[in-house]
């Protein structure tokens, strides 16, 4: 099998360097790499050139249009039987392609996705954020996996799809965010076989501070309502949980002005996060940071969901007039 690795990038040359370096360490080499610069002001062309002798790598520069259209641009110039879609902030462990090959040889899949982990080299903040994004006690349970509240939807940080399936679906839509879930929904709606490859995981750096993390998950909450407007059947009860958590948290904090007993559910949840994250990461410090990251994960998503519901459902604004800001700059 021949693979095309598609990497959209915007102003992240250092991350691209780490990702390409990890690709040089693969024992499986039957793949090409296409790095597509999405109108960056800090390009990574010189970084890519360093790897031209050890990787089958190509560099392209285009005007900014968001990651979805940038992936489509790369796919149009690729030749792989399967397309591997990666985010620039990922690092690929040795054995990644062997894991993909083993899964495809054991059972057919038109599309697939893999989990993500935090590398030992990541900062404590990145590890705490990774916990918040993958834990069963946050929306990690909604995202899908072995412990899941919904079926598995591949995400664009680690997604694979057969070339003819990608082309039949028309690639990624022009949605400014949530475009990867939109693509996954269309995979299922067209009855293609999609599976989780648990051993085809990547190290995913995500955000480096809580402010950026809040913005990321807030946009994810907005995306869920935008997806609901396109696919009403895609909104499940589990997607309401962060909004319910956010609303409940506000109510409890207001009640705490009358009685401190109202803080007990909040403290109990924080204790669960502390114990679970500290056990998983073997670090009390990361466990403490994970409390803040988990609350931001849920309230950021929940507030975005509520804001988008108000604008898109109640006020009936369209996607672009409701959220005119370019979320990728």
From TrEMBL:
<feature type="domain" description="Glycosyltransferase 2-like">
    <location>
        <begin position="4"/>
        <end position="165"/>
    </location>
</feature>
<feature type="transmembrane region" description="Helical">
    <location>
        <begin position="249"/>
        <end position="274"/>
    </location>
</feature>
<dbReference type="InterPro" id="IPR050834">
    <property type="entry name" value="Glycosyltransf_2"/>
</dbReference>
<feature type="transmembrane region" description="Helical">
    <location>
        <begin position="286"/>
        <end position="310"/>
    </location>
</feature>
<dbReference type="Pfam" id="PF00535">
    <property type="entry name" value="Glycos_transf_2"/>
</dbReference>
<dbReference type="InterPro" id="IPR001173">
    <property type="entry name" value="Glyco_trans_2-like"/>
</dbReference>
<keyword id="KW-0808">Transferase</keyword>
<dbReference type="InterPro" id="IPR029044">
    <property type="entry name" value="Nucleotide-diphossugar_trans"/>
</dbReference>
<keyword id="KW-0812">Transmembrane</keyword>
<protein>
    <submittedName>
        <fullName>Glycosyl transferase</fullName>
    </submittedName>
</protein>
<dbReference type="GO" id="GO:0016740">
    <property type="term" value="F:transferase activity"/>
</dbReference>
<keyword id="KW-0472">Membrane</keyword>
<keyword id="KW-1133">Transmembrane helix</keyword>
